Amino acid sequence: MKKTNHKSQVPFNPLTRPLLLVLSGPSGAGKDAVLTRMKELGYPLEYITTVTTRPQRAKERNDVDYHFISMERFQEMIERQELLEWANVYGNWYGVPKQPVKQALDKGQDIIVKVDIQGAATIKKILHQAVFIFLSPPSMKELATRLRQRYTESPTDLALRIKTAEEEIKQLPLFDYVVVNKQNEIDRAVSDIKAIITAEKCWVAPREIAL
């Protein structure tokens, strides 16, 4: 598929400030797939890679999909205040490294980070001017189907993820936007995120992020 450079399509606004986009949603909503597609299409964003203590899965690439680190290193990052936020999700720790976010903001670069619902709530408290996007499945039935088709969870873990997703969807009012990611329509979800970026860039009084 042809790669398109989307940089020239972003409207010019002399008052604009760099955006911090926070992409969240329940497990199985397709956050990783959406980010991968955005990279393929050449969206000019700084993609912040999350650190995690979770074991690396078969098709995942270290330092691309996640920074896979030990629990000891993760604890060290907490103690040194190197994480913007962190949370325990399904028994594993995840966190957003602070330094690459700060560096991108200092350069005036738009940023997107992928976090779970807990992480989004934490960032909301400290950086309320960020743009919070909830990636949603079209239905709980489809979400359950996607999770089953991943074959990465036991039946017990699968049931827990579905139950957790039902509770996470109730947190929708925390977010600024919702994007529905339908099966085999990932480009539509990506296009919706692009529309959000365009709308934010058109604000006369743009958001201002300070870290």
Question: How are the SSEs ordered, and which strands pair?
Answer:
Elements: E1 20-24, H1 31-40, E2 46-48, E3 51-52, E4 67-68, H2 71-79, E5 83-89, E6 92-97, H3 98-106, E7 111-114, H4 117-126, E8 131-136, H5 140-150, H6 155-168, E9 177-180, H7 186-201
Integer average pLDDT? 89
How many β-strand runs? 9
Looking across the biggest beta sheet, what order are the strands in? 2-7-1-8-9
Helix and strand succession?
A: EHEEEHEEHEHEHHEH
Q: What coarse outline follows from CA principal-axis ratios?
A: globular
Question: How much strand?
Answer: 15-25%
The biggest sheet amounts to: 5 strands, parallel
Structural class: alpha/beta
In angstroms, what is the radius of gyration? 17 Å
CATH topology heading = Rossmann fold
The percent of residues in helical segments reads 25-40%
**CATH superfamily membership:** P-loop containing nucleotide triphosphate hydrolases
What's the CATH first level?
Alpha Beta
Give the CA-CA distance, first to last residue: 37 Å
Question: What are the segments in which pLDDT stays under 50 over at least 5 consecutive residues?
Answer: none
Name given to the CATH architecture: 3-Layer(aba) Sandwich
Number of domains: 1
Number of helices: 7
